[in-house]
Amino acid sequence: MRDLITEHRLNIVLALILLGGPLVAHFADEPFLVTLATRAAILALAGVGLNIALGLGGLVSFGHAAFFGLGGYAVGILASHHQTYVPLMTAPFLINGTNQMLVLWLVAVLVSGLAALLIGALSLRTSGVYFIMITLAFAQMIYYFAISWPAYGGEDGLSIYVRNAFPGINTLRPLDFFLLCYAVLMLVLVAQWRMTGARFGVALQAVRQNEGRVAALGLSPYRIKLAAFVISGMVTGLAGALYADLNRFVSPSMMSWHLSGEIMVFIILGGVARLFGPVVGACLFVLFEHVFGSFTTHWQFFLGAALLAVVLFARGGFIGLVVGRVRHD
């Protein structure tokens, strides 16, 4: 109980640091640092999405970049049609493009959630290494489809010339856009915290520990895991939508297996199943990329060394190491 209280306090401190850093950078006239923090918040959101499946449900998905990319492409495609004034569809009914973030987020979440439902419905009939491979295979299929889709840039990607709009906020200002991404991240973290303590979250963790006993209680482990996989995909798709607006660009690289691996690295670095584990991991990733990347193009060497140290000596990740519980529970 003492460790749990300490972790809650650490989470609050981490949330304040993530908020305070960009505010200080803004008043110090360092917009680049604000953008770095925005990137960290968005990648953390993608990590939170995967952590629902991996941390709570024990589903080692190696294809979550597909949902990240689908969320990004949903934004990119609708925004490009809005910019060119060309309807997305004219029959059987008219669909125009839009630059309204609320609409774009809804579409991104629905598209990535539908993809997660289809992929999860098939993938969850397997387990172990077969589940890892089939999720990777689906992601690669979507990746190569995006490459061979010339209507929306193909391998060259698709540009969003002007960042999309959110009511009452000037999204072109780095600090405003950061605060928007930060608010989304915090809302999703609160939702995950509430879900973890709810009956669904308890059932999901029970499925991770022993499917047979859950089935014996009359529950369906398959349906519970599928629901978690869909929620996980929707959160990751929302992160992809924000990432598209951050870079004002989407490309097939958002769906590559490299990104799936990086999202998993966030979680392992910060702590698997820890609420703020992906947040810490994403911040460390961006920090390594920026600090060591300014000295060498092989900055991943240092990231790999840190990951190795965490796996060998702190399997509870950074948060587990700080609160004194170094092993994953």
Automatic annotation (TrEMBL):
Keywords: Cell membrane, Membrane, Transmembrane, Transmembrane helix
Tagged with keyword Cell membrane: yes
CDD domains in the cross-refs: TM_PBP1_LivM_like
Topology in membrane: Multi-pass membrane protein
TM stretches of this protein: 12-28, 40-60, 65-82, 102-122, 129-152, 172-191, 226-243, 263-288, 300-323
Protein name: Branched-chain amino acid ABC transporter permease
Pfam families membership: BPD_transp_2
UniProt keyword Glycoprotein present: no
Organism whose genome encodes this protein: Hoeflea ulvae
Compartments reported by the entry: Cell membrane
